[in-house]
Design brief:
By secondary structure, the protein is of the alpha/beta class. The chain has helices at residues 10-31, 33-41, 63-68, 70-73, 101-117, 137-149, 161-171, 180-192, 221-229, 341-348, 381-395, 406-413; strands at residues 81-86, 96-100, 125-128, 152-155, 175-178, 204-207, 233-240, 245-248, 256-257, 263-268, 281-287, 298-304, 306-307, 319-320, 325-326, 331-333, 336-338, 355-362, 368-375, 400-404, 424-426. Helix 1 packs across helix 2, helix 7 (161-171) packs across helix 8 and helix 8 packs parallel to helix 9. The chain is globular and about 65 Å long. The structure holds zinc ion (ZN). Residues 250, 252, 257, 311, 313, 315 line the site of zinc ion. The site of zinc ion (ZN) has 6 residues, from loops.
């Protein structure tokens, strides 16, 4: 059953969130050293913050705040902590977050809703192809959510396509939780080893970490490439450790659904002002129901577009389109403003391209420079021209393209001690 609030009208959802906001503000006032200080310094009387529109009176919280004042954000003492996690540290040092027992229940509820969006039923099963340890919140959330939803789970962990296929044969899972580019590796392995993957039990995949769709919700190059080989249902999900919340697509595939009980969303421009409704902006979030480290008006750095029309699945909550880019990764290149995912999407379209990294640097005049390092079996002038032409067609200009060995790219892509693979190296500043 879809929670009633997710099919309510917008006014009801807004009022519901405003009540939750009151509870959060009272909780922060009594438990959070960071927000106590912030309220005091900015003379904010929390009783005056009654409507969602009033949030703009409160200064936003940045990743740097979270890094610089980490202990001040924690609202519980160590005896109440059930689990510690860190952010992925894509930009800067990873930040430590503490979760209580209640926070783990909240995560489980959130991910159970994700599985519900995917149409997974009690009694079905799924295979986890991401890590559950390494201080990774999402892996644990997938496990706890499956428990809550009555879905069986087998924890294979990341990598090792051979073990993934062995497990699929033994367990017959209905769905995978995976990084989409890893699905391509699994398909490649299956084809090389005569595994009839199209006849396997797997019919759905919950895809994390990389976008699958373009802003008009058609599959991007990565999504198309997977579907060309393997006609399974792909569900994109967008989440982060700080949000402790996932936005997962339903079967309509028109953006990740917002769960009003878990998080408040705002969309702001470069100056921090709300963008006109329906325009893309930086996502700013306020967590609801979090006990360990709740966040108020946290700037995610992600540029996304919200959609407000009710969805054909029956949910009326807003939907988030694919992440257009990270705010601090915006590149101004020869008169064009772009976000690196546009480059990734284009490179993902080439079957000949085994792997790649994009490097951004500043030239002597402070202008942005892009170098694309491409890993291929056989480098050729033909392929180079093909890639350059595609860039020119899409962006008017082509960045510098350098061929390298697949191993060399892999060394850059998979640094030791990193949970995530690296696709972008930003040398600016
Ligand atoms: Zn829907």
């Amino acid at each position: 059953m879809i929670p009633a609030i997710e099919t309510a009208d917008r006014g009801t959802i807004k009022q519901f969130q405003e009540e939750k906001l009151q509870q959060l503000l009272a909780y922060l006032q009594s438990h959070s050293v960071y927000y106590q200080t912030l309220f005091k310094n900015h003379r904010i009387d929390i009783r005056a913050i009654r409507f969602l529109e009033d949030l703009t009176r409160i200064p936003m919280t940045t990743k740097a705040d979270l890094q610089d004042h980490n202990p001040a954000f924690r609202c519980v003492d160590t005896t109440q902590v059930a689990d510690y996690v860190t952010t992925s540290g894509t930009s800067g040092d990873p930040v430590l977050l503490a979760l209580t027992d209640g926070d783990l229940d909240r995560l489980a509820y959130n991910e159970a809703l994700s599985y519900q969006c995917m149409g997974l039923q009690r009694g079905q099963s799924l295979q986890l192809t991401t890590t559950i340890d390494r201080r990774f919140m999402a892996g644990l959330a997938y496990f706890l959510g499956a428990r809550k939803a009555g879905i069986g789970i087998v924890r294979v962990g990341s990598g090792v396509p051979e073990l993934q296929w062995d497990t699929i044969a033994r367990v017959q899972p209905d769905a995978l939780v995976c990084v989409p580019s890893f699905l391509l590796k699994m398909i490649e392995f299956a084809e090389a080893n005569g595994i009839d993957y199209r006849k396997s039990s797997v019919k759905k995949a919950l895809c994390i970490g990389e976008p699958l769709r373009t802003p008009d919700f058609t599959f991007n190059a990565l999504g198309q490439r997977i579907r060309r080989h393997w006609d399974i249902q792909l569900f994109s999900t967008y989440a982060s450790t700080e949000m402790a919340t996932a936005f997962t697509e339903c079967e309509q595939g028109v953006g990740g659904h917002h769960h009003p009980a878990l998080i408040i969303t705002e969309f702001v421009d470069n100056d921090g002002n709300p963008v006109p409704e329906g325009q893309s902006g930086e996502l700013v979030i306020t967590t609801l129901g979090v006990e360990g480290m709740p966040l108020l008006r946290f700037k995610t750095g992600d540029i996304v577009q919200p959609y407000y029309e009710p969805c054909a699945c029956g949910r009326t909550t807003l939907r988030l389109g694919p992440v257009i880019g990270r705010k601090n990764q915006m590149v101004k290149y020869k008169g064009t403003t772009l976000y690196p995912p546009v480059l990734f999407d284009l490179l993902n379209d080439f079957e000949e391209v085994e792997n790649y990294v994009v490097e951004i640097s500043s030239d002597e005049f402070g202008e942005d420079e892009i170098t694309v390092k491409v890993g291929v079996e056989r480098a050729s002038e033909d392929l180079l021209l093909k890639i350059k032409d595609r860039f020119r067609a899409k962006l008017r200009v082509s960045p510098r393209i350098v061929f390298a060995s697949i191993q060399e790219i892999n060394r850059i892509k998979f640094p030791e001690n990193s949970r995530k693979s690296v696709t972008l190296v930003d040398y600016r500043k």
